[in-house]
Amino acid sequence: MKKIKPISGFPEWLPDQKLVEQYFIDRLREKFELFGFTPIETRSVEPLDQLLKQGETDKEIYVLRRLQAAEGEGNLNLGLHYDLTVPFTRYVAQNRGQLQFPMRRYQIQKAWRGERPQEGRYREFYQADIDIIAENDLPVYFDAEMVVLLHEVVTSLPIPRITVHINNRKVLEGFYRALGIEDVPAVLRAVDKLDKIGEQAVSQILTATVGLAPAVVEKCLDLARIRGFDASVADAIMDLGVQGDLLRAGVDELRYVMRILEPLPGGSVVADLHIARGFDYYTGTVYEGIMMGHEDLGAVCSGGRYDNLASGGSSLKLPGVGISIGLSRILGRLFSRGLLRASRSAPSSVLVALTSEETRPESNDVARALRVRKIPCEVFHTPAKYGKQVQYAEKKGIPFVWFTQGEQTGGHEVRDIRTGVQAPADVNTWTPPPDDLSIKVSFDDRGRSGE
Amino acid sequence: MKKIKPISGFPEWLPDQKLVEQYFIDRLREKFELFGFTPIETRSVEPLDQLLKQGETDKEIYVLRRLQAAEGEGNLNLGLHYDLTVPFTRYVAQNRGQLQFPMRRYQIQKAWRGERPQEGRYREFYQADIDIIAENDLPVYFDAEMVVLLHEVVTSLPIPRITVHINNRKVLEGFYRALGIEDVPAVLRAVDKLDKIGEQAVSQILTATVGLAPAVVEKCLDLARIRGFDASVADAIMDLGVQGDLLRAGVDELRYVMRILEPLPGGSVVADLHIARGFDYYTGTVYEGIMMGHEDLGAVCSGGRYDNLASGGSSLKLPGVGISIGLSRILGRLFSRGLLRASRSAPSSVLVALTSEETRPESNDVARALRVRKIPCEVFHTPAKYGKQVQYAEKKGIPFVWFTQGEQTGGHEVRDIRTGVQAPADVNTWTPPPDDLSIKVSFDDRGRSGE
Question: B33 and chain A: CB distance < 8 Å anywhere?
Answer without folding.
Answer: yes
